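FAQ: What does the model actually see?

It sees only this:
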Amino acid sequence: KTQNRPGERIQFEAPMAVGNVMIICPSCNKKTRIAMTPGKSLRVIRELQELSQNDLAKLSGLPQSTISGMESGKINIGVERAKVLAKALKVHHAVIVFPGWEMEKAA
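And it is asked to produce this:
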């Protein structure tokens, strides 16, 4: 990782907030931030770890139908469920509950 090179693409493994992900259009090269709900954040984290809903259900002890409902926005995740899911996914629960939170805004 180098410093003072804004916009540079780097690759390294590290935890990150899913709400901070930007998509770059391949045809026009414009950047856009992804709007994330907690359910979308949960799905993205699960898929990045190559887990199915059934896999996550086994790891978390929550029914697959509940995971499906949370990902689709039909069931509220809530802090307690987020903690259970975060432990199963090995992430901090705030990444699921507050996917669009940024340090600069909070400071």
